[in-house]
């Protein structure tokens, strides 16, 4: 229902009352804090919409032009007409782009309940006006100063009359009319041109320096002639000793009526910086996706038997982060990204034991069993939704405490929105084109120019003078969104969501963007790849719900599957004791080869090197020489080189010839000459060996130390059990107890779903009906109860009125106090009264309910027009 169907609203509550359910739903969707909790009626909703915290949050989510429109209304008359607002935004000469965009901006402000009233009486809500209007303590973002009326309010009447006379106006009877005469002079274009035409050139220079703000200046007790000329005619007015201000009316004349130096009705165009073929983009992104999987696997494999210790304050130490970076062959910031990604995806956590350490979770083993594309989709989905931000690792929090990877304090609530918006901008570009980071950054700064902090707002880098509110000291929040944009572009490329800076096909599916791509049609990007005005519904993809995001991740995995290389079942053995894997290996082959050989280099192909130590590691794991020969012959496309066969046989021949057990420890061997050689070796002195029998040596060291010592001397001992059997040494995979992935920390209340919206609107409407429905005046009363005041009647009168309403079928208005003591007003249609209870259809709750009569404070009949 449009406002044209109703009389002009006298308050925001009346304006909201005139809205239809669709309009109310749009308001609650854009400002979800208004229904946390659900208001009892529209009056309470309007009150909540005008609170400082809610208005600051709403202003922060305005784009630059809509915010400029609100700023212009803050310096306009209250109320202002649409034509006055258009003049402030477009100036005397008009601006076609401003004229075209202004209706959408005003509609956006109305939708968010920041502006109410018809086009002839536009009103900015009081809190927004206080935040954006100029004052000596709070300079306006427009750079405009106070009005003549405001500045002269405390000026002596004699001084005002002097200014009026010097300006060439007739004297008036009082200060108010004198201020009005000055205002009329300064707003008359012809008279102002004539007055300024007589001004000295250096006086005009002073005005030029103040015209775009800040409008305040300092003067001495004896001003110079150029300043005296301006002061005498009211073109500059004193506000305090030594301080003068340029009145708003004078500044607007000098600005040709414009409130802003440069209105920005159209967002910066996101121009492509480079174009690539679809195959190049998708294959590059797929290669990065495969590398991401390999990196996460390598990280958690390195921590398989228990990772670094958890700091007392939580998180990973700087030393352990450096070690992790070396192990991954990555920089420390990138290592922090991989660690945080594994943690966010639920693959990594602390074990919670006394000696608390990080380790893989049971979910990691399940993740390893999934197909590669599905494993990537899980990582990408976790990254897209996470509020934990690896980019801040290494910085400091508000208390100057260091921020460590996996530690507290890394959540940045704006991160998911920024990631989503950056990818949406990429989705709006022509097919397979990549923008420059600075262009994306400029676009997002246009869409979110404000920063909120402590109930205040500030705009970094804006012309028009200082706009930061008092108490704001800047800090990381001023530049956080800019850094989030750059981190998003970098991380999306690293993770394989983008390829060469352009959004890949599987990245588009992850975002939930519809196909075909923007280049195939004139879709969101429009002709030439230019994104439309952001109020255009196609220019902004809404974030997906959790269920929708899961479906989108599955679709992304399906698109990625054919792009990932097929795992191989073979390697190429070479004569220099190396094996080359020309691609990813199947898991059983990769696991076995990882035990039998050491990784020497990675890349498109992985090179493994066989050493005596690696072969012994395989023998310790229970493999025999014949097993290793058969394994290599089966999985090599080249013949097994003779040096490798000799290496395996030589290590196997010596492996287990010595047996180490627990005495504290002992060594036994059938070859007593070999034992004599060991005792004679000076390197064995630290083991404190002594002979117990021709084939047995005892040691004071424990078995593990004895094993390591003999291996360091070049022998290949084997551990044995108490029964004399060889112990098979398999790595013990340390796992944490089941852990859930960290939940994102939302930025304010979540956007309500359609079901909650419908229920909230129904409850608000019903509560409003109960609070505003006209009541009949009871006998002895001169007026019905005031709005919000519960009706008060005696128990006998309440019972009689209820019984009468049952007979007539009429609705009545009651006051009700529930078991928790909360009072409310309700409109009910009684159906039955018995046993101290009334059963009625409750219009407020839209259901049949039963109420104890002793909890009803009073009852009143509704006016005839409400029956």
TrEMBL record:
<feature type="domain" description="Helicase XPB/Ssl2 N-terminal">
    <location>
        <begin position="571"/>
        <end position="693"/>
    </location>
</feature>
<dbReference type="Pfam" id="PF13625">
    <property type="entry name" value="Helicase_C_3"/>
</dbReference>
<feature type="region of interest" description="Disordered">
    <location>
        <begin position="772"/>
        <end position="793"/>
    </location>
</feature>
<feature type="region of interest" description="Disordered">
    <location>
        <begin position="453"/>
        <end position="478"/>
    </location>
</feature>
<feature type="domain" description="WYL">
    <location>
        <begin position="797"/>
        <end position="859"/>
    </location>
</feature>
<dbReference type="GO" id="GO:0003677">
    <property type="term" value="F:DNA binding"/>
</dbReference>
<dbReference type="Pfam" id="PF13280">
    <property type="entry name" value="WYL"/>
</dbReference>
<keyword id="KW-0238">DNA-binding</keyword>
<protein>
    <submittedName>
        <fullName>DNA-binding protein</fullName>
    </submittedName>
</protein>
<dbReference type="InterPro" id="IPR026881">
    <property type="entry name" value="WYL_dom"/>
</dbReference>
<dbReference type="InterPro" id="IPR032830">
    <property type="entry name" value="XPB/Ssl2_N"/>
</dbReference>
